Amino acid sequence: MTSLHKYLAEVVGTFVLVFGGVGSAVLAGPKVGNVGIALAFGLALLAMVYTIGPISGCHINPAVTVGLALHRKIGPTDAVAYIVAQIVGAIIAAGLLLAIAKGGPGGYDPAVAGLGANGYGVHSPGHYALGAAFLAETILTFVLVLTVLGATDITAPVGFAGLAIGLVLTLIHLVGIPITGTSVNPARSIGPAVFVGGWAWGQLWLFIVAPLLGAVIAAGVYQVLHRPTTTITAQHAERATESQQEERAPTRRPPERH
């Protein structure tokens, strides 16, 4: 697997996460509600863990990449490239969502409707203040990154990382949507902010700084809680076992005898 394959996988994975999660809020929010939006984010991540996890590790979140880098599960060069790829995927997804939303009755103005951008104060769904938003994003990202580190550990049950990570992202959104719309992912926040501009761009710093801080704390806490003798990458942890790969491999017919 080349580096390019991994970077492209991160573009695709982040695209699916943002298009599915933010798309559910922008295009179907009034119909599915907060629970539906939370499930959309969780299911998108769950699907991508099993789809691109064996290729790139399915970080699709700069905060997760930072947490894994601090835990030495990814090198610094790959980490930077992953983050760039994630931002690109999120921007593409947000742009296509905007194009679709504009085709609806009455059009769509992202500066007014928000395009699922994260915010605090008057731009918070529940009008939560800056301090509450910062604290919530830090704690919720901590929970996410800690779960990723644990679920992809060499001692974790094989094949269940996607379930744990997808479910915890759903839980995180159920808590965080009323506060900030839930970011816990700088790329997810950057994508819509590029098209909304104005207030979204001005408040974007919080949705970069707080998730990264949460990731750093999670990496530190996990290092204290668990010191494995062997470290494996996330994509290795999310890959099928050798026996499972053999089961899924095409059956070879024995050579015919003449």
Question: On the 0-100 scale, what is the average pLDDT?
Answer: 91
According to CATH, what is the topology? Glycerol uptake facilitator protein
> Shape, please?
globular
Strand content: under 5%
CATH superfamily: Glycerol uptake facilitator protein
Q: How many E-type strands?
A: 0
Please give the radius of gyration in angstroms: 19 Å
Report the top-level CATH class.
Mainly Alpha
Head-to-tail CA distance between termini: 40 Å
Low-pLDDT segments: none
Number of H/I helices: 11
CATH architectural type: Up-down Bundle
In percent, how helical is the residue content? over 70%
Q: Any idea how many domains?
A: 1
Protein structure class: mainly alpha
Main β-sheet description: none
Order of helices and strands: HHHHHHHHHHH
How would you explain this protein's 3D organization?
The protein has one domain (3-232): Glycerol uptake facilitator protein (Up-down Bundle), CATH 1.20.1080.10. It is built from eleven helices and no strands. The protein has helices at 3-56, 62-70, 76-101, 110-113, 130-151, 161-180, 186-196, 198-203, 206-225, 234-237, 242-248. The model has no long low-confidence stretch (mean pLDDT 91).
